[in-house]
Amino acid sequence: MPKAPATTTYSIERLDHLGIVAGVIKDLKIVELIDERLGIYHGESLSAGETVAGMIINGLGFSNRPLYLTPMFFKHCPLWLLFREGVKADDFNRFKLSRVLDRCHSYGTELLFSEISLHVCRQEKVDTRFNHLDTTSVTLSGDYLGKIEDDTVKINLGHSKDHRPDLKQVMLEMMVSQDGGIPLLGRSLDGNSSDNIVFKERAEKLVEEFKASETPRYLVADCKLYTETNAVHLKDLPFITRIPNNIKMVGESIDKALAATDDWKTLDDGRKIQTFNVEHYGMQQRWHVLSSETSQKTANKQVDKRVKKEAEAIEKQLFHLQAKRFACADDASAAAQDLAKKWKNHNIKNCQTVEHLCYEGKGRPKKDQEPTKTEYQVIADKEKDENKINKLKDKEAHYIIGSNTDPKELSDQEVVGAYKEQNKAERGFRFLKDPLFFVSSLFVKTPRRIMALLMVMLLSLLVYGIAERRLRACLAEKKETLPNQLHQEIEKPTLRWLFQLLYGIHCLTITTEKQTYHVIEGLTPLRQKILSLFGPTVANIYQFSSG
Fold first, then answer.
1. Residue 142: is its pLDDT beyond 80?
2. Does residue 421 sit within a domain?
3. Nearest residue to 238 (alpha-carbon basis) of 215, 207, 267, 266
4. How many structural domains compose the chain?
5. How far is CA 51 from CA 55, 92, 349, 388, in A?
6. What confidence category does residue 530 fall into, taking pLDDT thresholds of 50, 70 and 90?
7. Is 251 a domain residue?
8. What is the pLDDT of residue 173?
């Protein structure tokens, strides 16, 4: 009987940028760190660390798939490259994910993340001198089950930073390093938590931590950090923050700076600065009065908007005023002047009174009929107070950055530069809340799992931040560049853009009766150059030498 012909099968699996994410996770030993803390159960196909790593890869895969579709996400991925031999897509089922999220919460999500972040920052030598603190809201929809426990957040309505007051939410507190925007700590909070209270609690906890630090550390936050009730903690905590405009002394300091026209200095970025040594809330501080072209444009826009709104209100006021009648001309003029006193950016113009003779009876008065009384109507117009408006624009273009740091430790330039990097925290929040990220995965129905999933999202930001930091550091060391979206060579590309460039890399598996071959397809010279910047672990996943 003739022998059947040999058969050859082919399968193709998506790799794209997922190898970078998996490689960085392996380098940072995130799986091992989680397994050390949560333990490994006998007979489980996936450890807790591998399960969390799968959620991170899913989140950074930008597939816009909810969490319960993780098996579908991994169905056509080379799991033997991303994890190890024997891992299957169905291992990442929703029951496994839920149980691991419960275990993360039982250990303590804030504690687990801070321990991993501390290890990573030490390994990667992240500069943690400047710590940027901020909060955001994460909106949720649907009903949430489970008991309200002391160690879980309350999912409720609150001030929505997403401008969705109709949806329930939780709050997320995060502190990141200025060096690379690496998240250092993260905490889930009740949906109606106040920033003032959150910042006060965090400042109190950081006092001892900063004192015990081997190197000086500084807390950078927005104006909600600077309150009178929080001053007791700020006295012992080196801080850099914007001073709220509603403090009387702020306006006085800006007026003083505007009067001293010869004392302005220009920073490297073009901003103008004046520095005052002040005592406020019982603390000796440096207040830096700043202005820039950007702040001037913003102030002009905001003031013009307010002036326009006031003008519309004045039109209505004048319309109603001229409909009134007064017993004498002085009363009519006084009513107009009283009204004008309430205007902030306008003056009264062409104010005149008009006599109206009143006759007894209805209709046209008779030829010789005498008027019974005289009433007066006031007619007026408005005009902009250009001098006042220009002064207001100039004043509002200035703002104050305050710090209690020693000038010998941090120069004025360093203080102002540190606050300028506050957008590192805001950029991290934008990344977490991107629709392509797995924030839509917050379908889980219990508060404890929501808290754990927020922690996994912070771990994803940690991996992303370290990968981008490595990329840029390697480019700087080699003095190389990469093309941006406009095909221009740049020194600091975003990791997200490079992920787009790597789209189309696949793992082709060829299986014959005798052997199985694996071939990585789509490795163009540019893609291989990009991948080599992340080190040997990533290069090994894509099966080429990084040397």
1. no
2. no
3. 207
4. 1
5. 6, 7, 73, 62
6. very high
7. yes
8. 87
What are the DSSP calls for 31-55, one per residue? Answer: HHHHHHHH---TT-SS-HHHHHHHH
Domain housing 396: 245-407
Which two tokens mark 73?
């996400």
Give 462 or 165, the one with higher predicted confidence. 462
Q: What is the pLDDT of residue 469?
A: 94
- Residue 376 dihedral angles phi and psi, to the nearest 5°: -125, 135
Question: Which pTM was predicted?
Answer: 0.84
Angle, CA of 6, 8 and 11, to the nearest 5°: 165
Residue reference for tokens 């009264």: 348
> Dihedrals φ, ψ of 368, to 5°?
-105, 15
Q: For residue 458, tell me if it sits in a domain.
A: no
Q: Which residues contact 58 (CB under 8 A, 6 or more apart)?
A: 65, 67, 70, 73, 74, 92, 438
- Candidates 439, 415, 542, 406; CA nearest to 13 is 542
Tell me the mean pLDDT in the region 227-247.
Answer: 90
pLDDT at 62: 72
Question: Quick one: pLDDT band at residue 440, thresholds 50, 70, 90?
Answer: very low
With a cut of 50, say whether residue 543 has pLDDT above it. yes
Residue 309 CB-density burial (10 A; 0-12 exposed, 13-18 middle, 19+ buried): exposed
The pair of three-digit structure tokens given for residue 156, joined into one six-digit string? 């409720």
Give the torsion sign (CA, 306, 307, 312, 315): positive
Residue 361 lies in a domain: yes
| Residue-wise pLDDT tens digits, 13-72 | 889 999 999 999 999 999 999 999 999 888 888 999 999 999 999 888 876 666 666 788
Asked whether the beta carbons of 283 and 404 are under 8 A apart, the reply is yes
* Torsion sign across C-alpha atoms 90, 92, 95, 96: positive
How far, in whole angstroms, is CA 328 from its chain's centroid?
60
Average pLDDT of the chain? 87
Tokens representing 129 are 């001198």
Q: Which residues contact 440 (CB under 8 A, 6 or more apart)?
A: 64, 66
Q: Is the dihedral of CA 463, 538, 127, 119 positive or negative?
A: positive
Rounded Cα gap, residues 318 and 351, in angstroms:
11
SS3 call for 498 = helix
Count of CA atoms in the C-beta half-sphere (13 A) of 232: 5
Rounded CA-CA distance 425/134 in Å is 6
Each residue of 5-19: pLDDT tens digit?
557 888 888 899 999
More confident residue, 328 or 204: 328
The radius of gyration of the chain's CA atoms, rounded to the nearest angstrom, is 32
- Residue 538 burial by Cβ neighbours in a 10 Å radius (0-12, 13-18, 19+): buried
**Average pLDDT score over residue span 133-155:** 72
- Rounded Cα gap, residues 279 and 272, in angstroms: 23
Q: What is the 3-state secondary structure (H, E, C) of 159-210?
A: CCCCCCCCCEEEEEEEEEECCCCCEEEEEEECCCCCHHHHHHHHHHHHHHHH
Locate 334 and state its tokens.
């006084």
What pairs with residue 396 in β-bridges?
Answer: none
pLDDT for 357 equals 87
